[in-house]
Amino acid sequence: TVKTMFALLLVSGVIVPLASADSCSNYTLVNDTGLVDSNHLLRQVNAADVAECCTECAATPNCGAFTFNKNLATMQCRMTATANILPHPVQGVVSGKGPSVTPPSPPPAPNYCTGKKCRNVLYFVSDDMRADWRTYGLPVKTPNLDALAAKSVLFEHAYCQISVCAPSRMSFMTGRRPDTFGVWNFIDTVPLNTSATPGHFKDHGYITLGLGKTFHQGNGAWNADAYWSLDEKPYFQYEDGGCPHGSEGGGHCVKTDDEIYDYKLRLTTIEYLQYAANRSNATGRPFYVMTGFRKPHAPWEYPQRMWDLVNPPPLFILRCFPFPIHSFRGPFCRRSRKLSRSVHRQRDCGGRAQDVADGNAADCLVEAAGREAGERHSVSL
Length: 381
Prior knowledge:
This protein is α/β, with parallel strands linked by helices. 25% of the residues lie in helices and 20% in strands. It contains nine helices and 16 strands. Strands 1-2-6-4-5-3 form a six-stranded antiparallel β-sheet.
């Protein structure tokens, strides 16, 4: 129940501050605006008037904006995490925007590791990789990935939080659900002051170095000043790659090593990892190195030796293999043998970097599955 009623003077397109003394005083109103985008809808309730809708939003976790539609008899109040208001004005619709709902980040603690044993971190991400490894029972050649899995915590039931690349990465990097801030596509982002995993380590005194496709936006370097130690090394941005008859939507081709982005990423990751180890030894600060490989995301580029491992006819072949009973349920359909070659390419790139990590105080390994439609994460702690 709204105990305090207040008068509003609303003029189309003019922002009018709310004047009440209750929790709605932090909201501003605009008359005759668009509705909350249904794709970003957080909650929808009945409300008698704008004041009640505002109160409902203030009482709803993560609600940062609302619209009240005077033209409806029910469900007049629509709420969203951020200002996801459609740009098409509707007469009789009032929108209200509140303060940011971003939870405060923990205060930096640059001396956190002083006198403590803080472990170094090497974090691998691969793009669009499913569970088609020999470890999971598939008849493929993935020796380095299998060796990593053998000494790791291996998840056999893991699920992605959303099957779209950019919001999924934004989610697992920040620990926020996609619906918390309405991040559903390749454009939306969380607020810049949102804490993220590399930024958390940086705030606690770590040397944080980033390479490849970690975030989707900014070629991986999104909000880089807040999350990475750019005074140590610049962020090594990712490239999409391409084939003469295909791009990110498909296509395959044979290339030399130095024409493939992941090979360059492999070499640069080793360089950054060696730099981080040397700096850590010199300063006593631990390091966090995160590298995001682009493969096996299409287009499937691979050197001749990877083609020779499979050597199939140039046909699109669909095969189904059952997973072991202890693993994922149901049949598993291989998309193409071309994808298999890209997986072999991935293990060739990742194995050498892991060899370097084994010699640089990577104390234990965690292999975690589940980013985007079966994408994988490997964290070395």
